[in-house]
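[Discussion] Sanity-checking designs against the backbone

I'm trying to build intuition for which residues belong where. Below is a structure token string of 197 positions. I'd appreciate it if someone posts a full sequence so I can compare it with mine line by line.
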């Protein structure tokens, strides 16, 4: 019996190397994240569906490009680098957890990226992951994109740089909106907590 205990763990670890498992892991993780976003959004269903926005579309495009690269063997890193793949799994999971933690912490105060809703966003959220980063959701999502590229063994993990440039523009707009709405409270928070980490 003692020799059978490690078997499930070894099967799990070996399955992490299988190409199909890597694809399923990434797709299911992103779908679960989207479901969590949908379920924790207090707006009505029509508003939730109609507000997917460009940020979500950009993330979908990048993930589809990474999956395409992996499936067609284009832009892939020669051979499997096991350390990079494990680093990618870790980075991906940490990003997923950070994004979910931040979304749950924001609760009803969450709003669409780059927009501000005076009726919903009545409180400046500074607790939980917002004590570490002013943008933990974006940070977590970019960690996931970077990690998925490493898991899939593709050079397209660099697509996170393009996302960063796009998201940074949204963040700067959000900072102006928060500053004009919350005034000194936001400026004080901005002094204490860094934009990313």
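Best answer:
Here's mine. Compare freely.
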């Amino acid at each position: 019996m003692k020799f059978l205990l490690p078997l499930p763990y070894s099967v799990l670890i070996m399955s992490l190397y299988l190409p199909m498992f890597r694809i399923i892991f990434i797709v299911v993780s992103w779908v679960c994240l989207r479901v969590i976003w949908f379920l924790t959004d207090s707006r009505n269903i029509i508003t939730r569906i109609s507000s997917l926005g460009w940020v979500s579309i950009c993330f979908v495009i990048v993930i589809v490009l990474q999956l395409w690269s992996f499936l067609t063997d284009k832009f892939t890193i020669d051979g499997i680098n096991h350390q990079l793949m494990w680093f990618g799994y870790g980075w991906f999971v940490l990003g997923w957890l950070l994004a979910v933690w931040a979304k749950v912490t924001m609760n009803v105060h969450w709003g669409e990226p780059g927009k501000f809703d005076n009726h919903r966003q009545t409180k400046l959220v500074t607790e939980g992951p917002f004590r570490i980063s002013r943008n933990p959701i974006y940070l977590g999502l970019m960690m996931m994109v970077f990690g998925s590229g490493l898991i899939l063994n593709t050079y397209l993990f660099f697509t996170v740089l393009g996302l960063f440039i796009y998201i940074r523009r949204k963040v700067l707009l959000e900072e102006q909106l928060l500053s004009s709405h919350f005034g000194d409270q936001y400026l004080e928070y901005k002094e204490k907590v860094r934009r990313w980490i």
